[in-house]
């Protein structure tokens, strides 16, 4: 069952080039056996699905999505469970359950197969979806995704501190700058938008996913890896490293002036990479 809001909100292109058209954001709720799932939609055209990072919501794509829509694509944004109008993840859920939500959203659109783009930890769900429902996936895009490299313990401490909302804004900002943002970029945009309980539920779902076949499942589809040049969490891998871990069908783009946050730092460059990749597909 699907419910569409009576009013569509106007999504303005923050920082967009003069003359770039705005896109209307339509809001909808799907009633699924796993609970309600809130969706946002912009644009018309071939479908691109955006999946945010660990414990963060679709607001991270508020600048990116209208840029992609303005290029002639339909953008679908399922709100992670536990955020906004989406019901929380149920106990015992796995990454397969999270991917099933995305599959249900694509099927409700009737517009697949889709390009599925996962930012950071969102890449887990994108890759599981490509494994479980290859019929719904046209291609996969990984944005600043960790592909198996070790993370420095100090950076891990800053990641944890980012979710510790009891810390002062000043202390959290220092951790955000260290872990997520390139020098000179405005880390205050990520002071809000953290959902510790959602993060814990998503981590639990990842830990409960015992099978590993999905780790290389994306190689059956064209794959784009968008790296952030100054990523302290996932240093840009070489093309050879990506081919070894993700398969031979990888396109690599490195975005300068960005850290692991990537999307709020360089939305125009990320949009350009996604649109160019989408247009290159058969």
UniProtKB/TrEMBL annotation:
Gene3D superfamilies: alpha/beta hydrolase. GO terms for molecular function: hydrolase activity. The keyword Zinc-finger does not apply. Keywords: Hydrolase, Signal. InterPro entries: AB_hydrolase_1, AB_hydrolase_fold, Carboxylesterase_BioH. Transmembrane segments: none annotated. Residues 1-22 form the signal peptide. This is Alpha/beta hydrolase. It comes from Roseomonas indoligenes. The lineage of its organism: Bacteria, Pseudomonadati, Pseudomonadota, Alphaproteobacteria, Acetobacterales.
